[in-house]
Amino acid sequence: MSPSSPVPQVEGTDRGRTKPRAPKAAFVVIANRLPVDRVQNADGSTDWRTSPGGLVAALEPVMRRNGGAWIGWHGAADEPLDPFEDDGLQLVPVPLSSDEVEEYYEGFSNGTLWPLYHDVVAHPEFHREWWDSYVRVNQRFADRAAEVAEDGAVVWIQDYQLQLVPQMLRESRPDLRIGFFLHIPFPPTELFQQLPWRKQILEGLLGADLVGFQLPGAAQNFVRLVRQRVRHKTHRETVYLPDGRAVIAKAYPISIDASGLEALARQPESQRRADEIRESLGNPEYLLLGIDRLDYTKGLRQRLRAFGELIAEGTLDIEQAVFIQVATPSRERVGQYRLLRDDIDRLVGRINGDVGRIGNPPITYLHSSYPRSEMAALYRAADVMVVTPLRDGMNLVAKEYVACRYHNDGALVLSEFAGAAAELRQAYQVNPYDINGMKAALMDAMCDTQAEKTRRMKAMRRQVMDNDIEHWASTFLEDLANARQPHGKRTRPLL
Ligand code: G6P
Q: Are residues 219 and 273 located together in one domain of the fold?
């Protein structure tokens, strides 16, 4: 598409679109990515598809009621796009140049912050030019939001790519009510201190009225760091700023559209497809499943090794158990991700080569992404869901599996280092660094009695169905609305 095109061209789509207008909104969401992905059709034309993430689903009702706008990058470099309306939602693209994709997105966001915030399971790189690009791009997002937000609007900024936006936006628009939510872990103080720009990041976040984290421990890490590094007064979850403002730091564990996913899983087509998947694997007694973005934080290597050893040593028979690992392609130009891909390719090849038989590879490895309906069928098909990240902010796959098990059957093996472990206490919890422990947990998850599995699943289902994404968004937005008003200034309440 040429940069001068008025709207992203859509061919063969049933979405209602209108000509662009510069939107003004009472509710503004800012995320690195827009809620729609661009897809390339076979004939070369481009199309837009709602991103599978639950965030849009959660925020859609409040966006519609308030004529909300979503500010984000559409995923391609060097391609400025005008604002457009997609299915009644105002989308405001922020362009990135190819240098910025390299330095802000692949570099500082995913080569520095991502590994640093995930317990340095990969080595974070610190480059001054990456930081400069991060500052520049954050400023661009903040400027766009300042144009779009109505007087007194509520603005909700998402995730680690945009941690400077709260402060930048407050500087230009002190009338706004600003919330920030971090979807990934916030690291312990000892690790965060490594960051040469630690103070700027903390000050960036303090531009918000409410800073949300997945877990209470993360909020505490943040408050402690603010006290140590920025020297503001703090009390429990509140930071007191010299200008009289108070910033609250609190946990809001994110969730999924649980009833929507369960409804999809209940469709006869999902069960038919689940049966077909099992059939094509020779109807094994146990089907184990992993679904992850191909990321070094996810513990893929550890889980595949544990499973491979169980087969190799004869604890499990190859006819008895099969492992499907879906690894969705991600950040493929970042060095660590390329290395990981080769590593997993080799490991799967080695295990299948060593212990497989004709027609019986123990691991089916799929480097691909699938539509939601196929995911629901996979969750229905799996006896054991294996979620073993080395560190994870929440992990929604674990919650998705639980939502799909409406017969209260199946078993979840879950790393204690996933945020979800705090809520899904009845999972078979594992330390993914302990291969023997993981082997034992996998065996328990397969061989425990049905009654035991039902007991666990029932409790987890109650947790997930009661605390869905709608609950997450409304709790955060309510607290944001009630956060103390700076200098008594009024903001418009959301509808
Ligand atoms: C994680 C992050 C999100 C990010 C997603 C996909 O869930 O918390 O902010 O959008 O991964 O990664 P990508 O780099 O493709 O946006």
A: no
